[in-house]
Design goal:
Layout lengths: L4 H8 L5 E6 L5 H8 L3 E8 L2 H13 L6 E5 L12 E8 H9 L10 E8 L1 H10 L3 E10 L2 E9 L15 H4 L6 H19 L5 H15 L10
Parallel strand pairs: 1-2, 1-4, 2-3, 4-5
Antiparallel strand pairs: 5-7, 6-7
Helix pairs in contact: 4-5, 7-8
The structure holds S-adenosylmethionine (SAM).
Length: 229
């Protein structure tokens, strides 16, 4: 089974022996990989749709790990058993992940670790986390094809709210030492440049706000390539 670099990066934040809950498991490959490599001791696989969940069940049978996996048709963490160490939420939009966390207030203050990888609205997710009792403890980057994906490890502990610019490039990411950081920073700035260009000529307050934000993101220090984080 060939796992993408994005999903391998998620697995990289799992601690040996963890009981893992994979929310939005789809094919189930993350949980299956974690069991086949002996990294996870058990896996709760959940999905909001029955077709992917059935596919995960079949894959678990195929790879001989069915006895260590349990399957739940569920919206986020609703109705799931809580006897796990870490939650993986990958391949969803940042707003979907926020809505999943909002409806699981019992996570806060617990010893759970969250491994989050979102496909969109990353600043929204980082802002939500830093203002709602979570800490981004580690963040790294993975590249598949032409896409670069941030992957976060999050603790259920309160932290200082991130500034708007830090929601684009978190301190954890800037200190990650990832060789993909300069490329990712350029992509983030490229996205902001496009937004600013789209607003230029409007002369509005929004243009000024985005231009200032773009410049503050550009001014965030990142270690030199190859240097110490
Ligand atoms: C794009 S797939 C990602 C699958 C896998 N996690 C990955 O990263 O490759 C998103 C999966 O999340 C499921 N999903 C979306 N919203 C969900 C929710 N609120 N609760 C549980 N699963 C959800 C979808 O049905 C789909 O199978």
């Amino acid at each position: 089974m060939n796992l993408s670099n994005r999903l391998l990066a998620c697995c990289g934040f799992v601690n040996p022996g963890d009981r893992v809950a994979d929310i939005g498991c789809d094919h189930g490959y993350v949980g299956i990989h974690l069991l086949l490599t002996g990294k996870a001791s058990s896996v709760i696989a959940s999905d909001i749709h029955s077709d992917p969940l059935n596919c995960a069940r079949r894959n678990a049978e195929k790879y001989g790990v069915r006895s260590k996996m349990s399957f739940y048709l569920s919206d986020g963490l609703l109705g799931l058993p809580r006897d796990f160490d870490c939650v993986i939420c990958a391949g969803m939009g940042g707003d979907t992940i926020v809505s999943i966390l909002e409806r699981a207030p019992w996570l806060k203050g617990g010893s759970y670790r969250l491994i989050l990888q979102c496909q969109s609205k990353r600043p929204l997710l980082r802002s939500y986390l830093s203002r709602n009792g979570f800490t981004i403890s580690r963040e790294t980057l993975a590249k598949d094809g032409r896409f670069v994906y941030p992957v976060m490890e999050v603790l259920c502990l309160p932290s200082q709210p991130l500034s708007p610019e830090e929601c684009f490039l978190s301190p954890a990411l800037r200190n990650s030492g990832s060789p993909l950081l300069p490329e990712f920073r350029d992509r983030v700035l490229g996205g902001l440049d496009k937004t600013v260009a789209g607003l230029s000529g409007t002369g509005g307050e929004k243009y000024e706000t985005y231009l200032a934000l773009r410049n503050r993101v550009a001014a965030l220090p990142i270690p030199e390539e190859g240097g110490n984080p």
